[in-house]
Sequence to fold (588 residues):
Amino acid sequence: MKYVISFYCLFLVAACGQLPKDTSRWNSLALREVINEYHQYQKTLSPFSQPGVADNNARLPDLSAAVLLKNYQGKQKIYQKLLKIDRESLSQNDQINWSVLAYKIKDQLDSYVNKEHYMPLTAESGFHVGISWINKRVPFKVEQDYRDYIKRMSALPRYFDQQMAWMDLGIQEGITQPAVVLIGFEESIKAFIKEDVTESEFYQPFKKMPKHFDAKLTAELRAQAQKIIKENVITSYQKYYEYMVNVYQPNGRKNIAANSLPNGEHYYNNRVEHYTTLALSADEVHQKGLEEVARIRAEMEEIITSVGFQGDFASFVEFLRTDPQFYAKTPEALLKEASFIAKKMDAKLPSLFKKLPRTPYGVMAVPASIAPKYTTGRYAGPSRDDQPGNYWVNTYRLDRRPLYVLEALTLHEAVPGHHLQGSLAKEMKNVPEFRNNTYISAFGEGWGLYSEYLGLEAGFYQDPYSNFGRLTYEMWRACRLVVDTGMHSKGWSREQALSFLADNTALSLHNVKTEIDRYISWPGQALSYKIGELTIKRLRKKAEDTLGAAFDLREFHDEVLKNGSMPLSMLEQVITQYITEQKLKNRR
Fold:
């Protein structure tokens, strides 16, 4: 949405003695001006923020020190203007606008101050993977689309060099990923180094080109693409591979804790606040995790007893991890099972929601280039309006991908989880553009975990092993509260965290390792899930208890999702107001 009211005009109104008596109206107009300024500023930051404008499709982001500093200073000015607006006087919709924008800008400012650009990678991925998706950001319909893309690929050497320059500074200042989580990371880079350039991910748009291109143009564009991929793309990945093996990995940090970084205590506390969106200390999060682990463990023990298993918890988990009956035989079988579960839930959605998204989704394997160190599944939203969402299922090492957790995974990543929530947000009308594209982890991941629980009410988990899988996924998220805070603020070793996760869940040991390394390399993000889910469940109980027979589950879900991602404190205000309005409505 564009806001065209000039803040300067408001000052003229005030100077003429015509300042609106309604303070709410004044603050609303001021907020619109700030939102418009932010929107316009975002267009200048990265060619990815405004595809199709001018020559943006032919450029890559500039990561030079001067540009990053300028961006930081520009956003700081906008943020200070935002803070001067009286949020409490705004309408609910504008309070959401304020809260989401403040959250978004603050994180961008914190990222720069925390020097996160010194570490453009985590244990499971990095900039070299993200940049490979540039061919999905724009449609390939006319000749200029292809020529722009070729220019964009030509800029990869500069882009890679800038990233490695920041990583060099990270080595100098002790801001690197821990060495232990980088073991094998080079394989994700090597996957992009193709002897045959036509097999490169970057060449895919040239394999099937528009029929209205004549043979000469098609041959010319393909020849140019092959040349650029060979000379610019593959060489960039080869250079980064050698840098990773010979420079970065040998200089990886020895201590895994975020609080071992320069200014690490502040950094981790900042991440805890960001990923929970609440004023919680690491100690409070850790204790809540321990409480949840104990509660869920009791439920898991009940299932072990109900199936008549002769043995303790550890023996039961070992049985689940090793018995062939719980594993698909082929990647296709795993994908088909995930697709069946997803389709089964599609039919249940009308009983849980009044409003459903129009964007479809597919089920596909995690790309082979990142699968070995990637999590078990994830949702990948569409890059453009003409694309579907995709539920990614990891088919690497099938003996580590148990079927008994597939129902919970599917409900979390596809529907009613990330696809449904994210698509409704993208399809919102009459909201500022940033609202459609903002993803707040505590809200989104909290909803994803709550969606796993909704499967019980929708008739899933009829098999006790699948229900144990649901609980092991809930336990997994509870354990995250314990191990993330344990490693980053309480001196836990990696081995201690591995043991805690392995001893309390039925996750495969491969998953346990990849997950712990993910938490080490991405401090605080793992806290989002449980904190968000507990908040949504608490708000639902509050609504049920207050409204009684008048409580409508479909309306409640729509109320949670209709405004898109937001900080949990803002969600609490939204639901509290909804409950109040429903009470008044029922009295009439």
